Amino acid sequence: MISFLIGLGALILGYFIYGSVVERVFHIDNRPTPAIAHPDGVDYVPLPTWRIFTIQFLNIAGTGPIFGAIMGMLFGPAAYLWIVLGCIFAGATHDYLTGMLSLRHDGAGLPTIIGSYLGKTTKHVMLAFTILLLLMVGAVFVYSPAVILDGMMGGGLWWVAIIFAYYVVATLLPIDKVIGKIYPLFAISLLFMAVALLVGLLVKHPAMPEVWEMGNMEQLAATLTVEGHDMGLTDYLRANPLFPCLFITIACGAISGFHATQSPLMARCMRSERLGRPIFYGAMITEGLVALIWASISSYFFYCDGWKEVVSPDVLNDFLANADKQSFVDYFNAPRVVKIVCTGWLGVAGGILALLGVVAAPITSGDTALRSARLIIADFLKIEQRTIKNRLAISIPVFAGSFLLLWWQMANPSGFNVLWQYFGWSNQALSVFSLWAVTVYLARNRKCFWIMLLPAIFMTVVCTTFLFVSPSALHLSTAVTPWLSAAIVVIATAWFVIWYLRNQSAFSKL
Which residues contact 46 (CB under 8 A, 6 or more apart)? Predict the structure, then answer.
């Protein structure tokens, strides 16, 4: 567990050391925040810092740091490096700077911020792109908790209806009436789950694959069998090249464009710019810790026979009966691993509380996703949101769009996997635009733009390369991937250098 323990320490140190560096680069001041300058009692509402932190953490968490980490660990201990380095130098920095830019732009949504620094055309494209992503979040994050809750006081359809009804209420009511009151309970549940599982890991202290062994993953995967059946890890690794698939699979635990759509909600509730680092940077580091814990649990589950401790004979027999149709990796998907591990390690009471946290995470991202969609559309159309009539006028089409995606997802056997894949890529693609927008802001203001330029180039390479090598796309040979990636690096760097040089005279005048 050396890689895991070093990763935990690195994330904590990253908040205090690199987080303070990023804060100094941005240079905070004492100007009035939007919540203080013009509170409206609906969206611009000053809230206590601890409450804002819990809301921000649950907004960005979703199922990403849990499901994404479980699926990402199938690539082996390279996932540790991406979670730790990605979270400190890309994800948390991205969240902090996009959140603070929203704060400086009167709580503006992501399309407005992108338009301010990348042009009006980009703003309009990102408006449509962002709304579509938020609708997908609403659909995906209704279905995944309903799957986990299926069989508990009702079937899956019953839970889908309850969760969607909650979305309607949370989207329309003032932020301090529902979201501000119930999120602390959900946050406690999610953090309890993470801490309890961390203690379980430390007590068991299994010898899991380490970072320096990540070059031997195919050999290790080939030796893993279950009752004589191949686990399916070898086929998975061959069909999904580590670069760029790992960096798309683990999004919310490392960097996620979706986070930049959520930060404006809290930028409209903050009392001071000094709260930016604990709220924006700190919430992302906390999410990275949750992702790291679940990555280690899944490493133990898949690679160290940890499944034998928690999988009941009935479940194992069901898998063996369907082994010819479904591999071990496909059968024990992320939601099933979560359910089995929580109840198996923490008992009935602990399992219920842990599952509450796992279920709350996607629900509390879905409701704020639809709320963000309402606010982004309202800002674009310049429709005030004090009156319930105006909120309904925008929310009804938003609900209808999310419901249609949800209906399509449930009507198709592979609907969830397909929608999740589109969500994963569009999520990371959105981070590319927000990273470039922040890079331009830093360059215009003669600040150290390298802290955003390097992550912007890297994520541009990841998202563009994925279009060509993913199993559902053109699927180029892995031999072509390095050349394609190098070409994208050159193009992205050349674009920024040319833009920067052309604008030097404009900077001087400013």
Answer: 35, 36, 39, 269, 270, 271
